[in-house]
Amino acid sequence: GDALAVSARVAPLGSRLVLLLVEDLTEARRIEAVRRDFVANVSHELKTPVGALSLLSEAVMDASDDPEAVERFAGRMQIEATRLTSLVQELIDLSRVQNDDPLEDAEPVRVDELVAEAMDRCRHAAGTKQITMAAGGTADVSIWGNRGQLAAALGNLVENAVNYSPARTRVGIAARRVSAPGGDLIEIAVTDQGIGISDKDKERIFERFYRVDPARSRATGGTGLGLAIVKHVAASHGGEVTVWSSEGQGSTFTLRLPEAGAARDRAQQHPDLD
Ligand code: ADP
């Protein structure tokens, strides 16, 4: 067997009983359970690459007279280190979008710039799989929001579209302005011809660390946090993200966000809300 296979170890959970003398015990318990699950998930996700690194470094020491083995183990150490780095980065991004009010430094953000940035981020992965990326309708539309957060959200959707698609397929990004009672919205749809998502999984993919196929997600460098970040960004901008998917056919993730002009007009009509 592979001595280096790193088994999934569940973080030991202290069975802490929280006694709360409040009326709404059920809700408090639910919130506490979500928090505890999150902490357990984070420690489990961190332990996996750290455990692998520790085993691999031992293997390197044992194989010091075999340069080829040393190189092989070092290569795997690099992969685990990269995984650890992206996990920590995504945790920082998630905590930022959960804690910072994006509208504090909101500005008009051009959709063509967001799309170009998202496509650049995926250019390498798309190239190796010969996936074509195409965008339409992005000229002359702007969103009212936080540039960094919007870029992270769209980047995650395009990255997923590429990661969960087979070779030689197409990823399309289409933007359009739609009118809504509260003012115009910008709709950005990211469509792939990938593996798709079942109805059961559709309800859960926006949860932190939920993955349909953990092995596949890990293989592409996924952390299970991307869609949780997208959902937070959409909601805190007063928008939403929805998914349509057909298993084996592909998926479309649609972001709806406030249009820059409409949001500014609204702020001028109600200066006290500015
Ligand atoms: P990950 O880092 O695993 O990609 P995400 O939060 O971005 O985490 O996505 C959660 C899960 O949703 C993924 O692991 C995958 O199973 C599923 N998923 C996300 N985007 C797509 C897509 N475009 N096509 C198929 N499945 C997807």
TrEMBL record:
<dbReference type="GO" id="GO:0016036">
    <property type="term" value="P:cellular response to phosphate starvation"/>
</dbReference>
<dbReference type="GO" id="GO:0005524">
    <property type="term" value="F:ATP binding"/>
</dbReference>
<feature type="compositionally biased region" description="Basic and acidic residues">
    <location>
        <begin position="262"/>
        <end position="272"/>
    </location>
</feature>
<dbReference type="GO" id="GO:0000155">
    <property type="term" value="F:phosphorelay sensor kinase activity"/>
</dbReference>
<dbReference type="GO" id="GO:0005886">
    <property type="term" value="C:plasma membrane"/>
</dbReference>
<protein>
    <recommendedName>
        <fullName>Sensor-like histidine kinase SenX3</fullName>
        <ecNumber>2.7.13.3</ecNumber>
    </recommendedName>
</protein>
<keyword id="KW-0808">Transferase</keyword>
<dbReference type="GO" id="GO:0004721">
    <property type="term" value="F:phosphoprotein phosphatase activity"/>
</dbReference>
<keyword id="KW-0902">Two-component regulatory system</keyword>
<keyword id="KW-0418">Kinase</keyword>
<keyword id="KW-0597">Phosphoprotein</keyword>
<keyword id="KW-1003">Cell membrane</keyword>
<keyword id="KW-0547">Nucleotide-binding</keyword>
<keyword id="KW-0067">ATP-binding</keyword>
<keyword id="KW-0812">Transmembrane</keyword>
<keyword id="KW-0472">Membrane</keyword>
<keyword id="KW-1133">Transmembrane helix</keyword>
<feature type="domain" description="Histidine kinase">
    <location>
        <begin position="41"/>
        <end position="261"/>
    </location>
</feature>
